[in-house]
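Hi there. Long-time user, first ticket. I'm pasting a complex I've been working with (about 742 residues overall). I'd like to know whether the download I got is complete or cut off, because the file seemed smaller than I expected. Thanks.
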Amino acid sequence: MRVVIAEDLFLLREGLVRLLRAYGLEIAAAVDNGADLLAALLEHRPDVSIIDVRLPPTFTDEGLRTALEARRQVPGLPVLVLSQYVEQLYARELLSDQAGGVGYLLKDRVFNDDQFIEALRTVAGGGTVLDPEVISKLLSRRSRDEPIALLSRREREVLELMAEGRSNSAIAQQLFVSEKAVSKHSTSIFTKLGLAPSDDDNRRVLAVLAYLNS
Amino acid sequence: MLQLILVVAYFAGCVALALRRERARGRSPSTLRGHARALGWGMLLLPLALIAGGLFYPVRWPVIVLLLLAAGLLAVLWPGVAAKVTPLALIGLGLYGFVIVRVLARGGYVLAYGFLAPGQGWARTYTVLSQIWVFLALGTWLAWHMMDRQSRVARLLLWERQKGQGPGRRPRWGLLLVPVAVMAGELLGFNSSLGQGWWHPVQIVVVVLVAVALIGLVPAVAADLALAGLLVLGLYGLALAAMWPVHAPLPSVFTDQVRYGAVWVVDRPSAVLAGVQGLALLAFGMWLVPRALDARTRALFWPAPDAELAGRVQQLTQTRARAVDTAAAELRRVERDLHDGAQARLVALGMNLRAAERLITTSPQAALALVGEAIATSSTALTELRDLVRGIYPPVLADRGLPDAVRALALDTPLHTEVDIDIAGRLDAPVESACYFAVAEALANAVKHSGARHVQIRMEHARGMLRIEVIDDGAGGADPVNGSGLRGLERRLGTFDGILAVSSPPGGPTMVVIEVPCALSSPKTSSC
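Hi, the file is complete. Here it is re-exported in full:
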């Protein structure tokens, strides 16, 4: 799996390179600014890219804008965006093309390397991974008088994990329940939210997010 | 000689009689002194009557005696009336002087005018001219001081429509237009070709009437005209002195006579005298300029620290002090948060790692637990730092500016939030920050207190003013005075002359309005 990394802090960039190499991934390019990133993305067409939101030269949301621009030119180009902070606004922008292959995580998540690599693979596979903090904000926002209030506690847990991009089996493992139970919960969730059930993990996530973002 | 003694005796008799009458009326000393002044002005009528009598040629003693008797009677019996007649008599005498000047110019003969007997040649005209202005000035000054400010004439003159109002400062100077107009008329010598016989006094009277009409109808214009006339006449006098005998700077129709105020300019010494007079007029005019101009015109030339400006300075001083206080308090908060939060966690982290290092060979299990703890601590430290940064300057605000930052805020608000933003471009960072936190506070209040279901945020920038409205459909009744959060934000906005207003009637809706005068920088170069 070929990866492009965009991170302006040298230590973090080298740390990521070392981490990914340790997991047997191939580093196509490691850049430190927005312009180089766009060139690298378009040239290498990596299986997945890891992009820091804040990059030179503007040190604002250069990375995010470059990622969006690259995905505009190459639809569905998998990007995992990392940031010191997460904003629903940015998550919404990343998801707006509905093409999948998007990840948006806090930089802290890199500490948990197993989970981070799993998220990376999910994004590379066209899945969607959102940071739990984004999910909880999304859910809290629609908690007062929406159908979402009808969800049971367990159903909410399933929904949160679903939005993080987990498959049914992963959810089952996490919640210590059977996969069948998860499937039952998800059907119930879709019914309560008025969404068409689907087997495809990514579509499922997108449907939920589309509902939450509506 | 005998005549002189008789006249003096008559004067003394009149004064003595008038004083006796006063005493008989039992005036107290203080009012006696006040009345003595009026008595004095009234007594001035007697020499005036003598002068007026002297105007007739050939000398007619019966006329002089009659005038003296009338004046004496008036001064003794009705001293108040006499005092009022005096300034009018003075002005009339002065104006009549102009007629005499013309009579003299035509080669006529005048026995006497005023206190000086006209001599020979140009000196005759000169003595008359100089006295004319003494009479006019004294008469006007007297009239001004003795005028009953509440009388109809005075109010008409001063354009005081409403009773009880003292005469304004500005229209008062308009009265100067009368002498200025008369002097200008004399200088230009207009109508001199027609200036024969009865036309002389008519000319002066017309000039005076026009001036009075202007003062009555448009006092402000009259004041400006008088001022301009003073300055121009003054300059003209200086020019006369400098250019004589080339001739008068202005074409005078009356070529053989340049009558400049009290001076009849015929040779170099008299031209120099005219220059001195011009200088005096100019000085008076300059002195008058700041006093007679209205406030707005005055501010053009003399930008004085007016009340508005002083208020502004005071306001700026206050807001600056508050801004400094707020910044200092903010720094203290950041310092405390760092000290108690991230810094403490890093210390704990270091201790954990050190302990793990010691235990790693003897008891790997315990060391592993410590390392796990260290990881958790570092994660918590990161979260705290993130929150701190968000509280200082939200990253999304730095990245995207106020509109997107407010949209992000709205997304994070657990209410139905409608955002309507019409802003193209970036604002100054401090303004953006203050507005962001104000909106955040308003939203937080809506979530915490109002029980609202919907919140509407409207934001627009028009005519140099940023206006933000946060309206919720909650219960209302919010008390902005006790909301210390909003108070602080109001102070913060005050630094930019911004205001924060809260309208929250019981039963809702609550509306928070923020207005900040500010400029937009160029619109965003890119957007996504």
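A couple of notes from our side: The two ends of chain A are 34 Å apart (CA to CA). Chain A touches chain B at residues 53-54, 60-61, 64-65, 68-69, 84-85, 87-90, 92-93, 108, 111, 137, 140-145 (CB under 8 Å).
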